[in-house]
Structures are given as C-alpha cells and as structure tokens.
C-alpha cells in the first residue's frame, strides 16, 4: 500500500493528500510532527535527507517533492485525465507546476510560513509579492475555468493549497472573484479535501 508521510498543517503535504483523495487511491498516512521536530529524526532522514514532508513511498519508489509526487500519481492513477498525454497539454501543466514551486511557494506560501511556523522573513514584502502574483492568477482565471485549460489537472490541485491558505499569511482573497470561483469549482470535485486553514 502507498504510504504518505504527512503533517496536517503542511500545504505541500496537503497537495498530495488532496490528490490521493480525489483520485480515490487507498493509502496509509504517517504523521510527521514538524512542530516537534520529527522531520529531523534519523529514521525520517533516511527517507528524505532534506527533512521535509511530504514523502510518498510506493513499493520501491520513494518520492520527496510534492510536484514530483503529483506527476507520479497523475500519470499512474489519473487515467490521462489529470496529467495530459499530449505534448502541449503536459507542457501547460508543467508550466503551472513550476509556478507553484516558485512564485506561489515564495509569496503566499512564504507569508504563511512566517505567520504559522514562525519563519524569519519580511512578511510585508511577501504579502506584496502575493498580491502581485494573485493579480496574474486573477487575469488568467478570468479567461478560463482551470489553470491549464477547460478541465482540472494536477496543476490546479498543487496550486490550490497555498492560494487557498493565503489568508493564513494575511493575504486576503476578497478582491479576486475569479480566483475564488476557481477555488469553489475545485472544492466541489468528488473527494476534494479543503485546505487546512488555521482557526480564526
């Protein structure tokens, strides 16, 4: 059985947890308490020397990056629906995966890292970058329902987490109706697991 090393407040772990749920893939979750430092335990570091979640173990396959895991799950279990098999379609998805691990992680993801996990950094700058990025998402999603086209893909699942969690970092979404509509469309998908926002 697939095993997912997970932490409930981790946005990166949520991406994988959510995709497993949407795909209906049976799996076992192993909690790695980041707040207690369990990611630095020797037995976990043998799985991921970088000391981060998520980690996915499927038989002899061990993957330790949320985007790589999403590609693996999308290709293995998505029946061609979640990761296109045509060249342009797959490239469009890969573009948004890169944005997810770059701009999204470094703006709304980083703002949340500061407020929720106490990371050092300039919160105001991260919030400003977040709004600049969200304006680009807003423009794009005003023209099409999902990031890579007319149907949801792993690009939407992976980008959803830190966009939906942006309010945790003080980045409100009220000014972005197209983004909010996109989040709502995704949250209506069968098996979709909403992002684990901090209590108000």
Q: What is the secondary structure topology, with strand pairs?
A:
Layout: E1 2-6, H1 11-23, E2 27-31, H2 42-45, E3 55-58, E4 61-63, H3 66-77, H4 87-106, H5 108-117, H6 123-141, H7 154-164, H8 177-187
Parallel strand pairs: 1-2
Antiparallel strand pairs: 1-3, 3-4
- Overall body shape: globular
Number of strands: 4
Please estimate the helix content.
Answer: 40-55%
Instruction: Quickly count the helices.
Output: 8
Any idea of the CATH class of the largest domain? Mainly Alpha
Describe this structure in words.
The protein is α+β, with helices and mostly antiparallel strands and 200 residues long. The protein has two domains: 2-77, Glutaredoxin; 87-187, Up-down Bundle (Glutathione S-transferase Yfyf (Class Pi), Chain A, domain 2). The protein is built from eight helices and four strands; from the N terminus they run E-H-E-H-E-E-H-H-H-H-H-H. It has helices at 11-23, 42-45, 66-77, 87-106, 108-117, 123-141, 154-164, 177-187; strands at residues 2-6, 27-31, 55-58, 61-63. The protein has a four-stranded mixed β-sheet with strand order 2-1-3-4, with helices on one face. Helix 4 packs across helix 5 and helix 5 (108-117) crosses helix 6 (123-141). The longest helix has 20 residues, at 87-106. The protein is globular, with a radius of gyration of 16 Å. The termini are far apart. The model has no long low-confidence stretch (mean pLDDT 95).
């Amino acid at each position: 059985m697939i095993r997912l090393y997970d932490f409930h407040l981790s946005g990166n772990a949520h991406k994988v947890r959510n995709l497993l749920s949407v795909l209906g893939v049976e799996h076992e979750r192993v909690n790695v308490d980041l707040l207690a430092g369990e990611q630095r335990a020797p037995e976990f570091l043998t799985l991921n020397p970088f000391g981060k979640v998520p980690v996915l173990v499927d038989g002899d396959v061990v993957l330790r990056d949320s985007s790589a895991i999403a590609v693996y799950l999308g290709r293995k279990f998505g029946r061609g629906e979640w990761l296109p098999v045509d060249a342009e379609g797959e490239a469009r998805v890969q573009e948004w995966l890169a944005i997810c691990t770059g701009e999204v992680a470094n703006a709304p993801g980083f703002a949340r890292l500061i407020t929720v996990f106490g990371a050092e950094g300039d919160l105001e700058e991260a919030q400003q970058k977040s709004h600049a990025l969200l304006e680009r998402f807003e423009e794009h999603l005003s023209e099409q329902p999902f990031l890579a086209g007319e149907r949801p893909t792993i690009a939407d699942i992976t980008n959803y987490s830190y966009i939906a969690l942006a309010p945790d970092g003080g980045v409100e979404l009220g000014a972005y109706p197209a983004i909010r509509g996109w989040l709502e469309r995704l949250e209506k998908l069968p098996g979709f697991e909403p992002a684990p926002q901090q209590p108000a």
